[in-house]
Design brief:
CATH architecture of the largest domain: 3-Layer(aba) Sandwich
Strand content: 15-25%
Oligomer: single chain
Number of domains: 2
Largest sheet: 5 strands, parallel
Helix content: 40-55%
Number of helices: 6
Structural class: alpha/beta
CATH topology of the largest domain: Rossmann fold
Order of helices and strands: EEHEEEHHEHEHH
Length: 178
């Protein structure tokens, strides 16, 4: 069995209490056990000693790196523009293309849920495992929507879009059913 790790973050061997270090440590442990096929992530620090043959890094693509930088700049400069979902969509597209060429048979996504990656995995007959920190998507939708209505907020969150929430629910149900 070979495992493909999909992280929507950078990987770093420095700060031990960060998500970047946890991702690094998981990848190193799997590599030492001979179970690692690929790590797909946003970026790598210089101090990461995982060989390039195991890494697919979005930062290596100049067009996508520029697009993410533009989205980050827009969010910083114009406070009401929320680009997290757009950044996730770019990464989901990139990761799904990379997953299609991997030989591993288990995919681990450590939040958020990348729908294209899961679909590519299912199409290729791979098993996908997603670490989610939220309750059932429809319950989360109901809670988020009630808060938005109560406080008169505009709908920015990923779970306040009913269509997206239903897609996520279908993916989860398909994973549990198989």
């Amino acid at each position: 069995m070979k495992i493909i790790l999909v992280f929507f973050n950078d990987i770093s061997a420095n700060s031990r209490r960060s998500v970047a270090y946890t991702s690094y440590h998981l990848a190193r442990t799997l590599m030492a056990e001979g179970l690692l096929d690929k790590v797909i992530c946003l970026g790598l620090d210089r101090n990461v000693d995982i060989p390039n043959q195991y890494c697919e890094v979005l930062d290596n693509n100049p067009f996508l790196r520029a697009l993410l930088k533009l989205l980050n700049t827009l969010q910083r400069r114009i406070g009401w523009i929320h680009t997290r979902r757009a950044r996730e969509a770019v990464f989901d597209w990139y990761a799904s293309r990379k997953v299609a060429h991997c030989s591993g048979n288990l995919i681990f996504c450590a939040r958020p849920l990348f729908l294209r990656v899961i679909r590519k995995a299912q199409t290729a007959g791979k098993l996908a495992y997603v670490q989610a920190l939220t309750p059932h998507p429809l319950l989360n939708y109901a809670m988020t929507r009630n808060e938005e209505i109560r406080y008169g907020l505009k709908s920015y969150g990923g779970y306040s879009n009913l269509g997206r929430t239903e897609k996520i629910t279908r993916v989860i149900v398909n994973q549990i059913g198989s």
